[in-house]
Structure to design on (71 residues):
């Protein structure tokens, strides 16, 4: 599995990257995946929903939601 310490650090950097580039679906998808890995499912689904608002056919966001049966 992934180290909780590493996941927390990468989450922090992804959040900063998204602040600098708020329309980056790539950063948001990675953040959603990081949140899933930390079992923060509500936050992950919220992040994937933000991606889908920007890009309704975004495959990684759809798959992220499917992983948690929240689609």
């Amino acid at each position: 599995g992934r180290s909780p310490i590493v996941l927390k650090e990468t989450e922090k950097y992804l959040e900063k990257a998204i602040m600098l580039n708020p329309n980056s679906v790539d950063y948001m998808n990675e953040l959603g995946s990081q949140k899933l890995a930390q079992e923060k499912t509500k936050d992950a689904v919220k992040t994937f929903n933000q991606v889908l608002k920007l890009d309704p056919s975004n495959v990684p966001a759809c798959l992220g939601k499917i992983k948690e049966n929240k689609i």
